[in-house]
Amino acid sequence: MTKADIIDEVATATGLTKVETEAVLEGVIQSVITSLSNGERVDIRGFGSFIVKKRSARDAHNPATREVVKLKERFVPSFKVSKLLKDRVNKALLRGF
């Protein structure tokens, strides 16, 4: 499912126009990005949590040349699925098999 598919589906379900729905979705995405950039956690009950994880500096290897590459300390956004979402997806997919 793409962003355009989500916009179509939400617009149909809510009665909003696609332009309005896209503006709302963009607003949500930008809020999540801003919060994560500020080091804040974003919790959406029943869906999951967006968090920032710290990755320590380490040595890695380039598989093509076997050269050692030094990776700097960095922060990566991460998503942790809620139990409710995990259970719902498993229930739906297990029913289909």
Task: Tag the structure with descriptive keywords.
47% helix, alpha+beta, 5 strands, single chain, HU Protein, Chain A, extended
The averaged pLDDT comes out at: 96
Find the CATH superfamily: IHF-like DNA-binding proteins
Mind summarizing the main beta sheet? 3 strands, antiparallel
In terms of quaternary structure, the protein is: single chain
**Order of strands across the widest beta sheet?**
1-2-5
In CATH, what is the class? Few Secondary Structures
CATH architecture field: Irregular
Number of helices: 3
Number of strands: 5
Explain what this protein looks like in three dimensions:
With 97 residues, this protein is an alpha+beta fold. The protein has three helices and five strands; from the N terminus they run H-H-E-E-E-E-E-H. It has a single domain, classed as IHF-like DNA-binding proteins (HU Protein, Chain A, Irregular). A three-stranded antiparallel β-sheet has the order 1-2-5. It has a two-stranded antiparallel ribbon with strand order 3-4. A hairpin with a 3-residue loop joins strand 1 (42-44) and strand 2. Helix 1 (3-14) packs across helix 2. The protein is extended. The mean pLDDT is 96.
